[in-house]
Amino acid sequence: MLLAILNIVGIGVFAASGALVGIRKDFDIWGIATVAVLTGVGGGILRDLLLGITPPSALDNWVPVTTALIAALVTVIFHPSFALLRRTIVVLDAIGMGLFAATGASIAIDHHAHAFAATLIGMLAAIGGGVLRDVLANEIPLLLQPADLYAVPAIVAAAVVAIGRTYSDLPSQVWVVAGLVVGALLRLVALVLGWRLPMAPRGVGYNRRRRG
């Protein structure tokens, strides 16, 4: 029950982030709703397609899409106040990321995927919606920007579940919760401490072009 509630919260938060991008890009209400829904359920759809689950569960059940639409409507109405809730949204986003990565990996294990494949599928389930959002908004996906860690916490969360469920007899719920907690905490700690992955060193020619 708790995981189902967190899943709905994650869809809502992701959908709200998509709606905010649509508002910033001056999309009409249809465009905002489209970006919001694809951000909210896109990762789950990608996960199901990779596992051969048809139709995807997000489309075979009215709750995920409806949740995303409600989140989009609330965002459109109250978006001037969302700046005041930024920290709360960041925390919920981290929880949603960890949850989608963990449940994505667990569902992949249930469909007989190996630990490596389950880890990658879990990561894609967590980041897929955000990539769709950025592509639709004609922006460089946040995944490829050096602003902060996102894919790394997602893949760690998924790996905890995939390895734990493959090599341990503990109940799957234990590993899903463990993956969720590890992924969300790693994401939040990275934000607080400003952790980033290293970048390629700048060459001499690059620096000259910058100065010119």
Alpha carbon gap, first and last residue: 60 Å
The string of secondary-structure elements, in order, is HHHHHHHH
How many structural domains are formed by the residues?
1
Rounded to the nearest angstrom, the radius of gyration is: 18 Å
Shape: globular
The description of the largest β-sheet is: none
Portion in helices: over 70%
Task: Tally the helices.
Answer: 8
Report the structural category.
mainly alpha
Beta-strand percentage range? under 5%
Low-confidence sequence ranges = none
Total E-strand runs: 0
Q: On the 0-100 scale, what is the average pLDDT? A: 86
Pfam family, one: Gly_transporter
Transmembrane segments: 6-23, 30-50, 62-82, 89-109, 115-136, 148-168, 174-195
Membrane topology: Multi-pass membrane protein
Subcellular location: Cell membrane
Write a short abstract of this structure.
The protein is mostly helical and 212 residues long. The chain contains eight helices and no strands.
Summarize the topology.
Blueprint: H1 2-24, H2 29-51, H3 62-78, H4 86-110, H5 115-136, H6 151-167, H7 172-193, H8 204-211
Helix pairs in contact: 1-2, 1-3, 1-4, 2-3, 2-5, 4-5, 4-6, 4-7, 5-6, 6-7
Characterise this structure.
There is one protein chain. The chain has one domain. It is built from eight helices and no strands. It has helices spanning 2-24, 29-51, 62-78, 86-110, 115-136, 151-167, 172-193, 204-211. Helix 1 (2-24) crosses helix 4 (86-110) and helix 5 (115-136) runs antiparallel to helix 6. The longest helix has 25 residues, at 86-110. It is globular, with a radius of gyration of 18 Å. The chain starts with a helix and ends with a helix. The model has no long low-confidence stretch (mean pLDDT 86).
